[in-house]
């Protein structure tokens, strides 16, 4: 993070909508300084605001990222990929797109199987989190009180593809299940209106 504005964008991405006082506390700067940066980001259409009603006191503004700001974060897809999938669907039918993502899942399984082989399930989970983070998913991994893990992908590098072809989401969770000696459930999906993609991972004997 090279500037306060970048830090604000990162905080809104990782922590979700925040108020001026929330941001001031996180950044350890004055609320006046935060407002100055927010005004610039709002002018550049990187953030929006909405009123947050509170149990006591007056409503306060809560700030969130716009679609334009989403382009600031890591992406490794191109519009070419989406156009290509649309061409395949038009000429070969939706079944061809389905087969393509199934093939991708199998390829990923073979490509990374050595990285998971011989590891405990917890080591496998951490390996998966590291791989996804390196691919730009901005992964947050937390161990829960019951011993399971919650893996949150704060960014989706293939968001445009996944929004149009949710077979991409099925491919991802299928690959997770292939690689991990664990039960994997997706509890939130960005392509289906969630804020992030969230997975709960438990050992198979639970």
From TrEMBL:
| Ranges for domain HTH arsR-type | 1-80
Q: Which PROSITE patterns match?
A: HTH_ARSR_2, HTH_DEOR_2
| Pfam families (UniProt xref) | HTH_5 (PF01022)
Xref: SMART domains: HTH_DEOR
SUPFAM superfamilies the record matches: Winged helix' DNA-binding domain
Q: Tell me the ranges covered by the HTH deoR-type domain, including all copies.
A: 1-61
Q: What keyword terms does UniProt attach to this protein? A: DNA-binding, Transcription, Transcription regulation
Q: Name one GO molecular function term.
A: DNA binding
Does the UniProt entry include the keyword Transcription? yes
Q: Which PANTHER family match?
A: SLL0088 PROTEIN (PTHR38600:SF2), TRANSCRIPTIONAL REGULATORY PROTEIN (PTHR38600)
Q: What name appears for this protein in its UniProt entry? A: DeoR family transcriptional regulator
**UniProt organism field:** Polycladomyces abyssicola
């Amino acid at each position: 993070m090279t500037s306060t504005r970048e830090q604000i964008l990162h905080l809104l991405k990782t922590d979700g909508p925040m108020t001026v006082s929330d941001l001031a506390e996180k950044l350890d700067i004055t609320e006046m300084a935060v407002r100055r940066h927010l005004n610039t980001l709002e002018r550049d259409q990187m953030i929006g605001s909405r009123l947050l009603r509170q149990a006591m006191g007056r409503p306060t503004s809560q700030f969130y990222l716009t679609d334009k700001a989403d382009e600031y974060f890591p992406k490794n897809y191109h519009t070419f990929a989406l156009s290509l999938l649309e061409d395949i669907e038009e000429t070969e039918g939706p079944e061809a797109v389905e087969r393509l993502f199934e093939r991708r899942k199998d390829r990923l399984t073979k490509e990374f199987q050595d990285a998971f082989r011989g590891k405990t399930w917890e080591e496998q989970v951490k390996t998966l989190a590291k791989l996804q983070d390196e691919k730009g998913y901005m992964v947050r991994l937390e161990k829960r009180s019951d011993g399971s893990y919650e893996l949150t992908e704060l960014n989706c590098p293939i968001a445009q593809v996944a929004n149009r072809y949710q077979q991409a989401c099925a491919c991802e969770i299928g690959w997770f299940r292939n690689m991990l000696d664990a039960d994997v459930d997706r509890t939130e999906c960005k392509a289906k209106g969630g804020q992030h993609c969230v997975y709960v991972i438990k050992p198979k004997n639970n």
